[in-house]
Hints:
Elements: H1 5-16, H2 27-37, H3 41-48, H4 52-80, E1 83-91, E2 94-95, E3 98-103, H5 109-112, H6 117-131, H7 151-157, E4 160-164, E5 169-172, E6 178-180, E7 200-208, E8 211-219, H8 223-239, H9 244-250, H10 254-257, E9 258-263, E10 266-267, E11 273-278, E12 282-287, E13 297-298, E14 307-312, E15 328-333, H11 341-344, E16 346-348, E17 352-364, E18 373-374, H12 392-408, H13 432-444, H14 450-453, E19 456-457, E20 459-471, H15 478-489, E21 502-509, E22 513-521, H16 525-540, H17 544-596, H18 608-612, H19 644-651
Parallel strand pairs: 17-21, 17-22, 18-19
Antiparallel strand pairs: 1-22, 2-13, 3-12, 3-15, 4-5, 4-7, 5-6, 7-8, 9-10, 9-14, 11-12, 14-21, 15-16, 17-20
Amino acid sequence: AATAPGKKITARLKRTLPVRGPQAPTLSELMRWYCLNTNTHGCRRIVVSRGRLRRLLWIALTLGAVGLILWQCAELLMNYYSASVSVTVQFQKLPFPAVTICNINPYKYSAMKEYLYELDKETKKALETFYGFSEGKSKVRRSVDDWNSTGSDFFEQIPLLKVEDFSRTATELHSGQKRKIEGSVFHKDSSIVNSGDSNDIIGFQLCDANNSSECALYTFSSGVNAIQEWYKLHYMNIMAQIPLEIKEKLSYSAEDLLLTCFFDGLSCDKRHFTRFHHPLHGNCYTFNSGESGTILSTSTGGSEYGLQVVLYIDEADYNPFLVTSTGAKIMVHDQNEYPFIEDIGTEIETAAATSIGMHFTQSRKLSKPYSDCTETGADIPVENLYNKSYSLQICLHSCFQKAMVESCGCAQYAQPLPAGAEYCNYKKNPNWMYCYYRLHEKFVKEQLGCQQICKDACSFKEWALTTSIAQWPSVVSEDWMLRVLSWDKGQKLNKKLNKTDLANLMVFYKDLNERFISENPANTLVILLSNFGGQLGLWMSCSVVCVIEIVEVFFIDSLSIVLRRQWQRAKKWWSGRQQGRAAQAMASDVERQGHENPACIDEDLPTFTTALRLPLPQDSPLPRTPPPNYSTLRLETAFTEQLPDTLELSQH
């Protein structure tokens, strides 16, 4: 078929007019058009350069420049999310921190003996059985309210064991019977350390109450550690059953703990201290807690302008099995921070003056995307059980307590109670010890998920402590000082205090330099864009307009050409498929007409007889020869008159 005149003109115009942008039929022509019209010099030199060597050289230079740009821009992006640390020092009047003080012995042993009668009895029996240590019979009468009604039975279930390393045989404390210890019951993290020539170690075995075959034997390198751990295990069981009001009375009051108090050169008393009950340390007292709405401050550094207190420790009333050291624990912290005395408390000793100098530092880190910290802890899926400002320790302890309640059905005694839960004790939860030890093992190995969930706080306050110790009171002043303090305590003059019952504590600012450490973005958005522009101009002589041009050509135009080519191929394929279907349909019709004809079934050639037997169509009548029209048989001549010679014949 001849080409239409309009199409010929269009094709001629396309050949004569220059190719522009996405009108190019191929990607190679688009790239050539771009190189001839772009503002970047390297690409144009690739096209206009003559000679293969020079063209290859310009290609290498251009690609090298592009690689350098990508490398430098990647470095700029990575540095954009970095932070620089700045330290600012200010000299000003500083708020004094909260100082929490606890006696190392949580409760008066004289008041606790009636609750710990059975436990102390079993502990003394273990010392006598395993180490030959005997003590006079206890003269303490058991209380009518027997808090240890089921204690003996429970001590039989979890007794102390003396394990022989080589024979792997254990001797029970309560019954004295020996039994074979299978290898599977040994705690896999226990390290057996023999002391001297003895091959025996002390430990205790915990088994799952629901499955007696699930057991773990906890062994210790020293009998002291084994007995203390076993004692604390049963001690928490007993304390979990005593109401809080009774435990507060069993612990030390402010009058018992505090003898003298000075702050900033002025006298202070128990009214400046706030009591809170710690599960492991009993009654603790916080100076300058801020609960009254006022936070004390100091305007001068030095020991004379800080907090000075004399503490009454009362060593004679210590629990001999629960604690083995004498003194007090203190912690310096912010008013909104919970004091984790058991984790980061500082111990002060008796018969000594302990001076603690402080340096105040306030730190703040940038949150995401610069670091993985949290501002307030609201984005952490762990409930804060301490009602204090968020910290990493609060999150970890709260997470473990939550897992304890979910796994064991009760809460661990050393941490606050979640809503609707109660502390574990062997009367209501006989399986909690085994569950607790297994869960704590997972927590230490970071298999519980708490370390992955909890994050550091972005802002926090820190007091760096410098501790110095001096003998107190001195030998020459010991006599009169102890007499005066005994008088202040209200005791008789003939019974003066012992210096091992007293501890002198001084907490003060060494200077009033407030150090503020903060993280600032190393690069702002303006600096980042400026650096990008410098790299593009240095290596490619390119600007923002060139970048837009690159995006248009290499992404938009290239994509449109590729899509157009694919669309044309698809149309061509579809039209060819339609033509193929039409031709196939015609061929099938012809073939069907031939094969369905009954005359074609016979292998012989058709005859006149077989042709008459062909079936007739249903809708059309049978084609037959029409009858003759007799009028047509009349001979009509073109002559008007008959010839004479034919007249005679017609008459005949």
